[in-house]
Specification:
Number of domains: 1
Binding site for a ribonucleoside 5'-phosphate: 42, 63-65, 90-93, 132, 143
InterPro entries: Adenylat/UMP-CMP_kin, Adenylat_kinase_CS, P-loop_NTPase, UMP_CMP_kinase
Bound molecules: P1-(adenosine-5'-P5-(uridine-5')pentaphosphate, magnesium ion
Subunit structure: Monomer.
Strand order of the largest sheet: 2-3-1-4-5
Number of helices: 8
Structural class: alpha/beta
Largest sheet: 5 strands, parallel
Catalytic activity: CMP + ATP = CDP + ADP; dCMP + ATP = dCDP + ADP; UMP + ATP = UDP + ADP
CATH class: Alpha Beta
CATH topology: Rossmann fold
Distance between the termini: 19 Å
Number of strands: 5
Shape: globular
CATH superfamily: P-loop containing nucleotide triphosphate hydrolases
GO molecular function: ATP binding; nucleobase-containing compound kinase activity; phosphotransferase activity, phosphate group as acceptor
């Protein structure tokens, strides 16, 4: 059929678990387009959007932006890409995010989950130094709490559906990518 549904892989994991790093590796070997929900929201702030101030204050608090905003940005980026295979990085983060996508009849082929202890996440983010407003110890703690309370239930949901591919992300980046690569090679 001409209008095939897109192939979507969700990439989840705590703040600093390596979602962005590993997605950048994947697109060099497999024909996916990488869409980071967080990057799209930060670009929306910079664009001077009417929602910019609201998005900015939510990110600064580590809170999850209302689904309509994030989903609109993701759908627009999917359309503009010209591709039909997507790594969706950092989304869905809560039940509301998940359900909106399901209502659009978009089911992930599988869900990558980067598992990493909190101390390691903290270290990585504090070393990143890219000027992100949410990269300070106080906000990192809030981001981690939101991850545990809102996102881990989504991870469990996909595990119960047999869709979860869990990866030990506490290892060096090259070793993590070996595992990621094996998953993509066998799934696609
Ligand atoms: N690094 C990476 N891998 C490493 C390894 N194996 N060993 C050692 N170091 C490693 O990596 C983080 C740092 O660690 C980098 O310096 C890297 O070199 C190093 P990165 O790949 O950037 O990790 P990532 O998981 O992408 O971390 P990020 O901080 O982007 O994760 P978050 O989930 O916190 O951020 P995101 O941008 O997705 O979201 C930010 C905010 O936007 C959210 O808190 C929320 O407020 C909002 N948001 C929504 O509201 N809705 C959404 O759908 C998405 C975001
Ligand atoms: Mg990221």
């Amino acid at each position: 059929p001409r209008f095939r549904k897109p192939t979507v892989v969700f990439v989840l994991g705590g703040p600093g678990s390596g979602k962005g790093t590993q997605c950048a590796n994947v697109v060099q070997h497999f024909s996916y387009t990488h869409l980071s929900a967080g990057d799209l929201l930060r670009a929306e702030i910079r664009s001077g959007s009417q929602f910019g101030a609201m998005i900015q204050s939510m990110i600064a608090e580590g809170r999850i932006v209302p689904s309509e905003i994030t989903v609109k940005l993701l759908c627009k980026a999917m359309e503009e890409s010209g591709n039909d295979k997507f790594l969706i990085d950092g989304f869905p983060r809560n039940e509301e995010n998940r359900i909106i996508f399901e209502n659009a009849r978009i089911e992930p082929a599988f869900v990558l989950f980067f598992d990493c202890p909190e101390e390691e996440l903290e270290k990585r983010i504090m070393n990143r130094n890219q000027g992100r407003e949410d990269d300070n110890l106080e906000t990192i703690k809030k981001r981690f709490k939101v991850f545990v309370e809102s996102t881990l239930p989504i991870v469990s949901y996909y595990e119960s559906k047999g869709k979860l591919r869990k990866i030990n992300a506490a290892k060096p980046s090259e070793e993590v990518f070996e595992e990621v690569k094996n998953i993509f090679s066998s799934e696609t």
